[in-house]
Specification:
Elements (H helix, E strand, L loop, with lengths): L1 E5 L2 E4 L2 E2 L4 H12 L2 E6 L5 H12 L8 H9 L7 E5 L2 E3 L4 H18 L7 H4 L3 H21 L4 E3 L31 H18 L8 H9 L2 H16 L10 H20 L4 H22 L2 H5 L9 H12 L2 H8 L9 H10 L7 H11 L7 H13 L1 H7 L1 H17 L3 H20 L3 H17 L1 H11 L5 H10 L5 H8 L2 H14 L3 H12 L1
Helix pairs in contact: 2-3, 4-6, 6-8, 6-9, 7-9, 7-10, 7-11, 9-10, 10-11, 10-13, 11-13, 16-19, 17-20, 18-20, 19-20, 19-21, 20-21, 20-22, 21-22, 21-24, 25-26
Length: 531
């Protein structure tokens, strides 16, 4: 088992554990002693463990002498079953090539102590466990550097971020992809996002292979919060790839997960609404596409028959929606920005809600969404009209009242709509809903469709005349009369529909009376006619 320290966090075999008081205290103790990791091999004996515990107990309140006590208790040879690995510190006045060489050697020692078998950067970027070790080395070295800065020493590798430093936060508050300036809480995440792009550029360049140490140098230059974010994201990906399997797409997955994390934080904090989040994810999607091209090998770039792939921005938006809680999803669906959502997100949510026995929420969401056909913005009206057409089956499934309200909203907008293309879209959607109302025996919605067509006949006769044959209500009269005769009590909405077509209804009723061969049937037809 390996215990390592990343800042104030304790890691077991490269994975951070929950920071309870005891764990945090132990991590601070080890870090203060300049220890990067402690390894317990299968050969560790009970006697060694007892000496190990006694060394901690006798180290004093500030633990400065802990490292020496452990060496004395366990011995410095590799034969001990418990091995203590220290950070190496290089004097800050070492300059020039020899200083850089010493820094490089020290960084490699730290990484190896944490279990990273250093090699090419390209290989390290496919191995989450190796990245975890490199991140921990950078974190520990940076923490030691801060502690030794006043004494004229600096831990290596890593240095304080400066303008243009690898992996540092964008200067001047700019964010990747032209995003709005980040808050202090997001500076670390955005710095990591930028760092991933720089790493992709390094691995994509032709020439000599880049060493894995390059990643550690970038990580050491990140702000402390950035290293913590990087560790959390890499650790989450490592937990999804059991057995230490390598993943050539690891860098891209890191960038995608970071993009979702940044967008989620902004949304949950209330700094960005749906449209702003989608724009942010769109810009980050462009950055990730650029990263994907940088990572492609020369042979891959030379291929002309590349398989098509889903747009990265849409993929990010889909993943963002997937990780939102149902509470946040409903908040968006009932907000004024619901019209910015892709219809597939609305459908996905509404199709899952009834499975939990909730029938009122879909009705509320659909009725709220339909109100958007009257929005003052033409693009919004067009988007909502298209959305209602795509969700038509859900409107029909929601019941007569919800479908009736949608028909009323579309008819009311058709009365005043000035754009011809929107008039056509509204007409098509109204016809679609009318057919669903007739097929589902939603007589209230069917009556509303007839009322709207009658209103259009007065103010916009051209549109009404075009709608009537498309809705085809008169051809449905025989079926409606038959439905009415089957019921003990004729629904009022069905009677109202027939009253909207008095001539066709009267002719069909007369035909039914003439064809009746039994008194009971004749009485039913007369009762319907009187009604």
């Amino acid at each position: 088992m390996q215990l390592a320290v990343a800042g104030s966090r304790l890691m077991i075999d490269g994975e951070a554990i929950k920071a309870m008081p005891a764990e945090s205290s132990f991590a601070e103790m080890v870090s203060a002693a300049g220890i990067s990791s402690i390894e317990f091999t299968p050969h560790a004996s009970q006697e060694e463990f007892e000496r190990f515990v006694r060394a901690f107990a006798s180290s004093g309140p500030k633990f400065e002498g802990l490292s020496g006590l452990l060496k004395q208790a366990l011995g410095e040879s590799g034969a001990s079953g418990i091995r203590v690995n220290e950070f190496r510190v290089v004097a800050a006045d070492t300059v020039g090539d020899s200083g850089r060489a010493q820094a490089r050697v020290a960084g490699e020692a730290v990484a190896r102590a944490l279990g990273a078998d250093l090699g090419e950067l390209k290989d390290a970027l496919a191995d989450p466990q190796k990245l975890l070790a490199l991140i921990a080395a950078a974190e520990g070295a940076s923490a030691l550097q801060e502690g030794k800065a006043g004494a004229g020493n600096s831990a290596v590798p890593g240095s304080a971020p400066s303008d243009g430093a690898p992996g540092g936060a964008p200067a001047g508050g700019a964010s990747p992809g032209g995003m709005p300036a980040a808050s202090a809480d997001e500076a670390g995440e955005l710095a990591v996002f930028k760092m991933l792009g720089q790493l992709g550029q390094s691995t994509g360049k032709p020439g000599a292979p880049v060493e894995a140490q390059h990643f550690q140098q970038h990580a050491a230059a990140l702000p402390a919060q950035g290293r913590q974010v990087l560790h959390e994201v890499v650790a989450s990906l490592a937990s999804e790839s059991p057995g230490g399997a390598q993943d050539p797409q690891l860098l891209l997955k890191l960038a995608e997960r970071l993009a979702i994390r940044i967008a989620m934080k902004r949304f949950e904090r209330g700094d960005a609404e749906v449209d702003a989040v989608q724009q942010m994810l769109g810009r980050m999607g462009q950055e990730i596409d650029s990263l994907r091209k940088k990572l492609a090998t020369y042979e891959e770039r030379a291929r002309t028959t590349e398989a098509p792939r889903e747009d990265t921005a849409e993929e990010l938006q889909q993943r963002f929606w997937a990780v939102l809680s149902d509470e946040n999803k409903l908040r968006i669906l009932l907000s004024l920005e619901v019209h910015q959502l892709p219809v597939r997100h609305i459908r996905q949510f509404l199709e899952n809600v009834p499975r939990r026995g909730d029938v009122s929420t879909p009705r509320t969401v659909l009725e709220h969404y339909a109100e958007g056909v009257g929005d003052k913005n033409a693009e919004t009206r067009a988007r909502v009209t298209e959305g209602i057409a795509d969700l038509a089956d859900l409107y029909a499934a929601a019941g007569d009242e919800t479908l009736e309200r949608a028909v009323a909203a579309m008819g009311a907008q058709l009365l005043v709509e000035q754009k011809v293309e929107l008039q056509n879209a509204l007409s098509s959607a109204l016809v679609q809903l009318s057919h669903l109302a007739a097929d589902g025996r939603h007589y209230g919605a069917l009556k509303q469709a007839m009322v709207q067509i009658s209103a259009l006949a007065h103010d916009r006769p051209t549109i009404a005349n075009a709608l009537r044959p498309r809705v085809g209500m008169e051809s449905r009269v025989p079926h409606l009369i038959e439905e009415a005769l089957k019921k003990p009590t004729v629904p009022q909405h069905l009677l109202d529909v027939l009253k909207e077509m008095p001539r066709a209804a009267a002719l069909q009723t007369a035909n039914q009376f003439n064809q009746a061969t039994e008194k009971e049937r004749s009485d039913l037809v007369l009762a319907l006619a009187n009604a």
